[in-house]
Write a structure and sequence with these properties.
The protein has helices spanning about 10-15, 25-35, 55-65, 75-80, 100-105, 115-125, 165-175, 190-205, 235-250, 265, 300-305, 390-395, and strands at about 1-5, 5, 20-25, 40-50, 65-70, 90, 110-115, 130-135, 160, 180, 215, 255-260, 270-280, 285-290, 310, 320-325, 335-340, 350, 375-380, 380-385. By secondary structure, it is of the alpha/beta class. The strands form three sheets. Strands 3, 13, 14, 15, 16, 17, 18, 19 and 20 form a nine-stranded mixed sheet that branches. Strands 4-5-6-7-8-10-11-12 form an eight-stranded parallel barrel, surrounded by five helices. Strands 1-2 form a two-stranded antiparallel sheet. The chain starts with a strand and ends in a 7-residue tail after the last helix.
C-alpha cells in the first residue's frame, strides 16, 4: 500500500509511529472536483480548517485558490499566518464573547452571526459601517450522526428561520449591511434535496436583504469510509444546486457568489494514521490487536461511532483473520470492532484510513501521551510538517508552586 507513491511501511520506518500522513495530490484533486461541480455559477470554496489546520495544508489549498472557514479567532490567526488575505476568511463563531467578534472585525475578515442578541449588539456597535452575514437555522435534520447534525430545531447553531421578522427589525433599526446568508445542516449528507430544501428557505429570505453578495450553503458532502460505501453524488448534487441558484439569481436581479465550506470532503481521504501493533491478545471471545495509538489520537470511532478502514500494510497478502483493534489508553478505546484484517504479527504496521479530517485537530494528551508527528507526501517526497511531541512539550505551560 502506497501513499502518494511511497510505501506506507517506508514512511513508518522513516518517521516512526504513530504518524499522520497526508497525500497532497488527493487534497488538490478533491478541491477541484468540488470546485468544478457547480456549472454556470460563481463558486467560492472556503476550506473548513477545523478539519485539519497544519500551515502546510492551508498553504497548499491557498495555492489552489481556496478561501477559509474559521470558527474561532485562533483559527482566523492560523489562516492569516498561512498567508490568506482577511477577505478570504469567513469567521463563523458560536457562543463566543462579543470581544472576540470585535477582534475579528479589526482583522478585517468576513463576519457571520448566528445569534439574535449578538446581531443586535453588532448593529449597535457598527451600524452599516461593517458588513456581516447571518447564519440561519433551517430546522432540517440532516447528517450521519446526532453530534454532527447542526441545522435542526434543537441545535445551538444559527438563528431560527421563524425569527426572521425579528432579525429584519434589528437590521433595519441599525441600518445594517447584510452581505450574505448562511446555513449548514450537518455532515455526511447524501441527498441533494437536503441542500435544496435549505436553499429555498434562504432564497425566500433573500427578498428582504437587498445588499447580498453571496449565499453560503455550508457543506456536509459524504465521502466513502469503506469499500462500496454510498457517497454524495457530487456531479448530480452540484448540477441541481447550480441550476436552482441560477434561477434565484435571475429573480434576485443580479449574480451572487455561491459559497461552500468543505472540510472533510477535501482532506478525509487524503489522510492515514500509521500505527504499530504492540501486542496480539486473545481472550475467551476476542482477538485484540493492541496498537501504539488510541482515542487520544483518533477520537472519531469512540465519539461518533465512525468507521475507519484498517489495513495491515506489513502483510497485505496474509490470511484475513477477525480482530478488534484497540489502543493503549486506559479507557474503552476501540478503533475498530470485528474487522477482517490480513494476519497481524507484533511489530506490523497498520494503516487507518480516512484520517485526514478531525484526526490530528481533535487529538489530545490523555494519559499524558504525546501527540503524533505529521507528514505530507508531495511531489513524490515524504516531508515532516509537525514534529512528534516530547515530554518538554507536555509540561511546557505548567507552573510549579509546590
Amino acid at each position: 500500500m502506497k501513499i502518494g507513491g511511497i510505501p506506507a511501511t517506508e514512511i513508518a520506518a522513516q518517521f516512526g509511529t504513530p504518524v499522520y500522513v497526508y497525500d497532497a495530490e488527493t487534497i488538490t484533486t478533491q478541491y477541484h472536483r468540488l470546485k468544478n461541480a457547480f456549472p454556470g455559477v460563481k463558486v467560492s470554496l472556503h476550506y473548513a480548517l477545523k478539519a485539519l489546520n497544519n500551515v502546510n495544508i492551508l498553504r497548499l489549498l491557498k495555492n489552489e485558490g481556496s478561501g477559509l472557514d474559521a470558527v474561532s479567532i485562533q483559527e482566523v490567526l492560523l489562516g492569516l499566518r498561512a498567508g490568506f488575505a482577511p477577505e478570504q476568511i469567513m469567521y463563523t463563531p458560536n457562543c463566543v464573547d462579543f470581544e472576540e467578534i470585535q477582534e475579528a472585525v479589526k482583522l478585517g475578515v468576513h463576519i457571520n452571526i448566528d445569534n439574535i442578541s449578538i446581531l443586535e449588539e453588532f448593529g449597535h456597535h457598527y451600524g452599516g459601517s461593517v458588513k456581516c452575514c447571518i447564519r440561519l437555522n433551517p430546522h432540517i435534520m440532516a447528517g450521519g450522526h446526532s453530534h454532527i447534525s447542526v441545522g435542526h430545531i434543537d441545535s445551538k447553531f444559527g438563528i431560527s428561520i421563524y425569527q426572521l421578522r425579528h432579525v429584519l427589525r434589528i437590521v433595519q433599526s441599525h441600518n445594517m449591511k447584510i452581505n450574505g446568508l448562511h446555513m449548514h445542516t450537518g455532515s455526511d449528507i447524501l441527498d441533494a434535496d437536503v441542500f435544496l430544501r435549505g436553499a429555498e428557505l434562504l432564497f425566500e429570505a433573500a427578498a428582504d436583504f437587498p445588499d447580498l453578495e453571496f449565499m453560503d450553503f455550508g457543506s456536509g458532502f459524504k465521502v466513502p469510509y469503506k469499500e462500496g460505501d454510498i457517497v454524495t453524488d457530487i456531479a448530480d448534487t452540484g448540477s441541481r444546486i447550480a441550476e436552482a441558484f441560477q434561477r434565484f439569481c435571475d429573480n434576485y436581479g443580479r449574480e451572487l457568489e455561491l459559497w461552500f465550506e468543505p472540510g472533510k470532503y477535501i482532506v478525509s481521504e487524503a489522510g492515514f494514521l500509521l500505527v504499530k501493533a504492540n501486542v496480539i491478545k486473545q481472550t475467551t471471545s476476542t482477538v485484540f490487536i493492541g496498537v501504539d495509538s488510541g482515542q487520544n489520537h483518533l477520537i472519531r470511532p469512540m465519539f461518533y461511532d465512525a468507521y475507519h478502514r484498517i489495513e495491515n500494510v506489513s502483510n497485505l497478502e496474509g490470511l484475513p483473520r477477525l480482530y478488534s483493534v484497540v489502543g493503549y489508553i486506559c479507557e474503552t478505546d476501540t478503533l475498530g470492532y470485528d474487522r477482517k484484517i490480513a494476519e497481524v504479527r507484533e511489530g506490523d504496521i497498520l494503516a487507518i484510513y480516512n484520517a485526514g479530517a478531525y484526526g490530528f485537530t481533535m487529538s489530545n494528551n490523555y494519559n499524558a501521551r504525546f501527540r503524533p508527528a505529521e507528514v505530507l507526501v508531495i511531489n513524490g517526497e515524504a516531508r515532516l510538517i509537525r514534529r512528534r511531541e516530547t515530554f518538554e512539550d507536555l509540561i511546557r505551560n505548567e507552573i510549579e508552586v509546590l
